[in-house]
Amino acid sequence: PTPASFAAKPISEKVRDLPGIRSLFAQVFLDQCVHHPLMYFPVFYMIKDAVTSDSPDPVRAVRQFGTNMKEDMIALWKVWVPSTFLNFAFMPMYLRIPWVASTSLIWTCILSTMRGGSDQVPSNEVIGPYADATSYELLMRTAMPPPSLNPAHAHVLVTVHGVDRPGMVAAASRAVFDAGGNLTTGKMIKLGGEFAVMMHVECEPAQLSQLRENLHAKKSTALAGCDVETRQVVVVNDGSPRPAYSAHVRLTGPDQPGLVMRLTELLAQHGLNVEHIQTEQHVPPRNASKPRLFSLCGIVSSQLEPDSRAIEDSIKQMRDELNVTCMIERDDGWLLRRGSSRA
Questions:
Q1: For the chain, what is the HEC assignment?
Q2: pLDDT per residue of the chain (343 residues) written in tens, 0 to 9
């Protein structure tokens, strides 16, 4: 039977028309299980990636659909399977296009909500798995790669902590400068009434003793009573291959115990090595009575290519359990820069 003649039959005749019923199910199956997963969604993700990404990658876009396939297909079928059955079984030919267009309008609204990726960040304070104006800014922060150590230089890890007072950083940096040292990377922060400094310093090997002597001498009164520790960092060039994988990791959400533990345990389970992580706690600026926000950004690497699908599944589970936003974004550009600095 033709689609038009089957649709025109009364229900009593439809249920006895076995060839027509087989044709109906075949049409629904081809539309929902072949056309949508193999054509519609891959094209949608590729177009979305081309429009929203600075460096479009069709392969990455299709992989993203693979990650979201189960959720996307279930949402699609909830709308389109009933609509398609009604369309093919009952709609006369002149009403089929209006029916499909009406269903498409509803489905487009649903898909835009699920996967639209609007550039408009909501201004209201919504703390949780979806980034608001505050947590979105925190989520987009990026940690810099750890410094590459020049094997021709001596390297020292310096820590200073003591009662906070003016001039502590100036005194420590002066001690480094007077010995011919160069401060490359550091973290300096006030915690209550204490002040702590951690920094990496490099210098010529012949100046290493003078550098450590200057720091431990505490010539400035600003360092009097402070605990100063220096530890030489040995540059190891064991000929190990460059990591095969590198990625930025970011997390933000309501501050709670165990966030760093859960994330780093997840990373370790998938064989990812932490290269650099920095964390901060924040008070929402517009409403100090709301929960504090926690943010983390870092870089991880692996000598082997990890199972990206398994990592994404674990991240999704952690997001749902802890009510946070978390993402891992691959960045092979850092591997290239790291490789060139080692050469």
A1: CCHHHHHHCCHHHHCCCHHHHHHHHHHHHHHHHHHHHHHHHHHHHHHHHHHHCCCCCHHHHHHHHHHHHHHHHHHHHHHHHHHHHHHHHHCCHHHHHHHHHHHHHHHHHHHHHHHCCCCCCCCCCCCCCCCCHHHHHHHCCCCCCCCCCCCCCEEEEEEEEEECCCCHHHHHHHHHHHCCCEEEEEEEEEECCEEEEEEEEEECHHHHHHHHHHHHHCCCHHHCCCEEEEEEECCCCCCCCCCCEEEEEEEEEECCCCHHHHHHHHHHHCCCEEEEEEEEEECCCCCCCCCCEEEEEEEEEECCCCCHHHHHHHHHHHHHHHCCEEEEEECHHHHHHHHHHHC
A2: 566 777 778 878 877 888 888 888 888 899 999 999 999 999 999 998 888 877 788 898 899 888 889 999 999 999 999 998 888 888 888 888 899 999 999 999 999 888 876 333 433 333 444 445 455 555 555 666 777 788 889 999 999 999 999 999 999 999 999 999 999 888 898 888 999 999 999 999 999 999 999 888 876 778 888 999 999 988 876 556 678 888 999 998 888 999 999 999 999 999 999 988 888 887 765 555 667 888 898 999 998 999 989 999 999 999 999 989 898 988 866 544 454 444 3
